[in-house]
Design brief:
binds magnesium ion, DNA polymerase, domain 1, alpha+beta, binds thymidine-5'-triphosphate, globular, five-stranded mixed beta sheet
Length: about 350
């Protein structure tokens, strides 16, 4: 099952584009994010800002406390999207098997590429050089026999780095990999495992597959592979979406279910717009409402439903709000999210077979 996979991920992507266009930003801490006084959050920041502990998803106000000289820019989404298109076009020179994961990141399967005699390492070096020369930002890459390890490897020498894991190094490389590098093992699972003395993938190898399934449910089977650095998933050129959603953080907390319902209307319009672009390929199979309270605790409510009507979201919102604790409700709602769960209509599934 050994493939040749490259995982590419731009370094501090939005910030890198801003530094490219304004060299004065290079050596001072900058971030892209919402304004601190309207309770915005940081999307990303450059590496000088990271030295102060600033990171993605941190409230901007907190980021400014950690780094008072931080310059927070509002961001230019249309430009980042255009830059992303240029980067993906560079990947396309080396393979048709590309799976974008976000604007700045993709898996590239070069197993059958003939460039550089099929050397994935040299292709990765060339991609990095092309992006730097033509786009003006740096990109890190990981090269490995599968997606899981390639993605880990692209992080290994960040920023502006390349790390290669050869097939015969897979076992040793994964043995010393901290378990939280496995997608699906979040901070909670990692802490539980640490209590049992499990820190690295090698520690996970002492369990039987059955024990892993008992501990982790459906994830157990996947873990049984990942602990040896294995991953049989193919690079998927067309991603099947499972959901579409929108969310908004409000400048002031919403304190009543009525004010939440009012805020829901424009959000619903936004969701419909996004959905419209997908409607030819997917059917709606359910609705999701997410509430994040002032204390950052959050809850989601889902309802299987094929009908699209704002009324169903309002009902779901009502349920969600009422199921919050009195403490949560008293603090108010800082963020509302709405989403559709998607299913692929039968015709599409059949089409895919051919
Ligand atoms: P990432 O690749 O996760 O982060 P990054 O490129 O900024 O930094 P690096 O890879 O060097 O660690 O995300 C790519 C872009 O996506 C990022 O530049 C901004 C955006 N983003 C958000 O808007 N919010 C987030 O919480 C994250 C993680 C990213
Ligand atoms: Mg990145």
């Amino acid at each position: 099952m050994n493939r040749k996979i490259i995982h590419c991920d731009c370094d501090c992507f939005y910030a890198a584009v801003e530094m490219r266009d304004e060299p004065n930003y290079r050596h001072r801490p900058i971030a892209i994010g919402g304004a601190a006084n309207s309770r915005g959050v940081i999307s990303t920041c450059n590496y000088p800002a990271r030295k102060f502990g600033v990171h993605s998803a941190m409230p901007s106000a907190q980021a400014l406390r950690a780094c008072p000289e931080l310059l927070i820019l509002p961001g230019r989404m249309a430009l980042y999207k255009a830059v992303s298109v240029e980067i993906m076009a560079i990947f396309k020179r080396y393979s048709n098997l590309i799976e974008p994961l976000s604007l700045d990141e993709a898996f590239i399967d070069v197993s059958d590429s003939l460039t550089f005699d099929g050397s994935a390492t040299r292709i990765a070096q060339q991609i990095r050089a092309d992006v730097e020369a033509e786009v003006g930002i740096t990109i890190s890459a990981g090269v490995a026999p599968n997606k899981f390890i390639a993605k880990v490897a692209s992080d290994w020498r960040k920023p502006n780095g390349l790390f290669v894991v050869k097939p015969d190094e897979l076992d040793a490389f994964s043995a010393v990999l901290p378990v939280n590098k496995i997608p699906g093992i979040g901070p909670v699972s990692a802490a539980k495992l640490a209590q049992q003395g499990v820190h690295m993938c090698a520690d996970l190898r002492s369990f039987s597959e059955l024990e892993l399934e008992q501990k982790f449910g459906r994830m157990g089977k996947t873990l049984a592979l990942r602990r040896f650095g294995l991953d049989h998933r193919a690079v998927q050129t067309s991603r099947i979406r499972k959901s579409v959603s929108v969310e908004n953080t409000y400048p002031k907390d919403l304190h009543s279910v009525e004010s939440c319902k009012q805020a829901l209307v424009p959000l619903y319009e936004q969701l419909l717009q996004r959905w419209q672009k997908l409607a030819t390929h997917y059917a709606v199979s359910g609705l999701v409402v997410k509430l994040k309270f002032a204390d950052f605790s959050q809850l989601t409510r889902e309802h299987a439903n094929e009908e699209i009507d704002v009324v169903f979201f309002q009902q779901l919102l009502h349920q969600a709000f009422s199921s919050g604790s009195s403490q949560q409700r008293a603090g108010g709602v800082r963020l509302l999210g709405l989403g559709f769960k998607l299913s692929t209509p039968v015709t599409q599934q059949q089409l895919r077979l051919f």
